[in-house]
Amino acid sequence: MSWFQRNWLTKRRHHPSPLESITVEVFERAAISEGFTIDEAQREAIGALMASAEHGFYLWGPVGCGKSWILNVYYEAISSSRKRRVHFHEFFHQLHQAITKKGNSIERALDELLNEVDVLCFDEFHVHDVGDSTFIRRMLLELFARPIRLIVTSNYPPDGLLPNPLFHDMFLPTIEVIAEKLEVLEIRGTRDYRLDSEHTQGFSSGVWLSPGTAAQYRELGLSTHGASSAATVTVSGRLLNVVQADHELLWFRFSDLCESKTGSSDYLDLAARHQTWLISDIPSLTELDREPAQRFANLIDVLYDRQILVTFIATAPIHELAATSRGPLDIDRTISRLSQLRHHNESILK
Prior knowledge:
Blueprint: H1 3-12, H2 24-33, H3 40-51, E1 56-60, H4 67-77, E2 83-87, H5 88-101, H6 106-114, E3 119-123, H7 130-144, E4 149-154, H8 168-181, E5 182-186, E6 207-209, H9 214-219, E7 231-235, E8 238-242, E9 244-245, E10 250-253, H10 254-258, H11 264-273, E11 276-282, H12 290-305, E12 309-314, H13 331-338, E13 342-344
Parallel strand pairs: 1-4, 1-5, 2-3, 3-4, 6-12, 6-13, 10-11, 11-12
Antiparallel strand pairs: 7-8, 9-10
Helix pairs in contact: 5-6, 7-8, 11-12, 12-13
């Protein structure tokens, strides 16, 4: 038994399970407070989740079906502080950093990250990169060896992870472990609840403007000449060009953020420092190579998860973003999240 497991068991004796008081009624009250009613697919998943206080779960289903909402309500209802909810992108980045600090030991890195955690919630779990897949296998095996309840949400069933047919077979042993260790629950909803956004706070209170006319800039109190001004911001030890970076606004041109070699760790760093963003000169994804388009999709994931207020100024309306075979992976999730924004093709005052 590792030090982590001995330490966990000692503390566990003094911390009874905080999950026993969570009932379906907790979810019903949360739904009513947000102006909707739990549908049958959601109720079935919630019932299975509440049926056991010990098993881990893998919740999957189409975009907007309520996976993240269920996870968030569940997480907030846990009375203990010995819990952690994190976007998978962010945890993956933190784990890489911790491994470097701990002499390339994934076990010691997880000890540091999860020392005070009984329940770990991963939102938006997915595997697309073959290089990441080997590392994810090691991480999951270490997690499953620990007395931690793992709850995962994903747009993919376990056997849909790492879908590239050239590499999928390599990931099958990991898929088998996931299916063995976690109870897999499908949410079969067909409605995208994100489209019901009231645009009152966080990411959904932002705006998507197209086609980016001078009049639209003026209505925002901005100048199209401002988009050509030059400043810089430091991220991960290097400089990125920006239009503006201060306590009021972080303004990037699309090309400076997504056509340079940036990644999710950079977006997380910037989102921690700036709560109000503007991204201008966004081209149609049909004009882009896959890498810049994928960076944009990863950026949206981070901004959405961090509930950053963003104004997007683009050449095309949101629905045209998906009209390309070269678009990013998980384009449906990106479109679903962007569709929560207020979007205007002419004046934002109308």
